[in-house]
Specification:
Organism: Massilia eburnea
CATH topology of the largest domain: Rossmann fold
Family: Belongs to the CFA/CMAS family.
Helix content: 40-55%
Pfam family, one: DUF7884
Order of helices and strands: HEEEHHEHHHHEHEHEEHEHHEHHE
Distance between the termini: 69 Å
Oligomer: single chain
Number of domains: 2
Radius of gyration: 23 Å
Shape: elongated
Largest sheet: 7 strands, mixed
GO molecular function, one term: methyltransferase activity
CATH architecture of the largest domain: 3-Layer(aba) Sandwich
Protein name: Methyltransferase domain-containing protein
Length: 401
């Protein structure tokens, strides 16, 4: 009875503040609707002990309860995320442990490799259920806003290759090459010699297979290698969706290594997620805590200001900065739709728990980008101190087709 009274009090305090398409079903058969609108999300609390997750509904606590099966949540992920965020905003203060705290982690080769494999080595077939046919697992580029995902991902790669002014005969290093889409496209379109590196064994195997199938063995090499072990000099270097794994404290070292690998007149493209909090804080209401626990162990986001500072300290000068936040919001929204469309196959491949993790993660990312909690920047840079005459006078070269 005590728990029921607390639930009643909580609902009475929250319901007048929000009009949500939400129904809460309790263990004793009672249910509560939060608006006259037909519920699009149902939260079922199967026992009195599970009620505590509702009373302090942070993104971390409710996400954990859903993933671990302590509560049941039904509905489309996009609706689930909106409802949970509304509950969190109405019930909690965005301060203290629920604020945009900045956490730092110890990074070393072993832990970095384990974190990468935890996230990426689910199975290649798992990622094929929601990515485009080229399996590009990063922000797409919707040049006109009406492209399908496959087209937008090709346009993203071409946008990057245009920004770094890639030319035949050059060499390209792709740090965190994924399943090889960028290096394959670069070799096919420009005839350049490419090296792609990854720490994921699954990505490494499939990327090699795709290079062979494309007949590009003579131009493209895929390595299972840490970026700290790469030797040589490259005319162009790309890093797409990789530096989020480096760690905020290691950004200067990371860009310093890139600087050493870059030819004197070379160009670098760093494409990565950033925090929109100037203090490098995570997404609020415990969202960052959930992602670190279940999705990206040891992942850290820096504000773009700190990224630019770290680049400069690593002896790299930023030439061009472009914000693609809304592009990533749409990308994640499409991934979520694809994920739900293939729910049966995803559950078969990954199991119920991992399905629930990714279900809320993908939709949560779409929401976070949409709300400007996180962002995505493409930054083109080169070695500090280059003579200005070696650089284009305008950005027009990026759009010449």
């Amino acid at each position: 009875m005590f728990v029921q009274n607390r639930i009643n009090s909580w609902i009475s305090s929250i319901a007048p503040q929000v009009a949500l398409p939400l129904r809460i079903e309790l263990w004793n058969g009672r249910s509560f609707d939060f608006s006259q609108e037909a519920p699009r999300v149902t939260i079922r609390v199967p026992s009195p002990s599970a009620a505590r997750y509702l009373l302090k509904p942070s993104l971390s606590s409710l996400g954990t309860a859903y993933v671990e099966g302590a509560i049941e949540v039904t509905g489309r992920a996009v609706d689930m995320i909106k409802v949970v965020n509304a509950l969190a905003r109405s019930s909690l203060k965005d301060t203290g442990s629920l604020a945009r705290i900045a956490r730092t982690f110890h990074h070393n080769r072993k832990e970095d490799a384990e974190a990468i494999r935890y996230h990426y080595d689910v199975s290649n077939e798992f990622y094929q259920q929601f990515l485009d046919p080229n399996m590009v697992y990063s922000c797409a580029y919707f040049e006109n806003g009406d492209e399908d995902l496959a087209t937008a991902q090709i346009k993203k790669i071409d946008h990057i290759l245009a920004k770094i002014q890639l030319k035949p005969g050059q060499t390209l290093l792709d740090i965190g090459c994924g399943w090889g889409a960028l290096v394959i496209r670069a070799a096919q379109k420009y005839g350049v010699r490419c090296v792609g590196i990854t720490l994921s064994e699954n990505q490494h195997a499939l990327a090699q297979e795709r290079v062979r199938a494309a007949g590009l063995d003579h131009l493209v090499e895929i390595r299972l290698q840490d970026y700290r072990d790469v030797k040589g000099s490259f005319d162009r270097i790309t890093s797409v969706g990789m530096f989020e794994h480096v760690g905020v404290k290691h950004l200067v070292e990371y860009f310093g290594i890139i600087n050493k690998l870059l030819a004197d007149d070379g160009l670098v493209m760093n494409h990565g997620i950033t925090s929109t909090d100037p203090d490098n804080g995570e997404t609020p209401y415990g969202g960052g805590e959930f992602i670190e626990k279940y999705v990206f162990p040891h992942g850290e986001l820096a504000h773009v200001g700190q990224v630019l500072r770290a680049m400069q300290e690593g002896q790299l000068e930023a030439y061009d900065v472009e914000n693609l936040r809304r592009h990533y919001a749409r990308t994640c929204a499409i991934w979520t739709e694809n994920f739900e469309e293939h729910e049966e196959k995803v559950r078969e491949l990954a199991g119920d728990k991992r399905f629930r993790i990714w279900h809320v993660y993908l939709a949560g990312c779409a929401y976070a980008f949409d709300q400007d909690w996180i962002s995505l920047y493409q930054i083109v840079c080169g070695k500090s101190g280059r003579h200005p005459s070696s650089l284009p006078w305008s950005r027009q070269y990026m759009y010449n087709k």
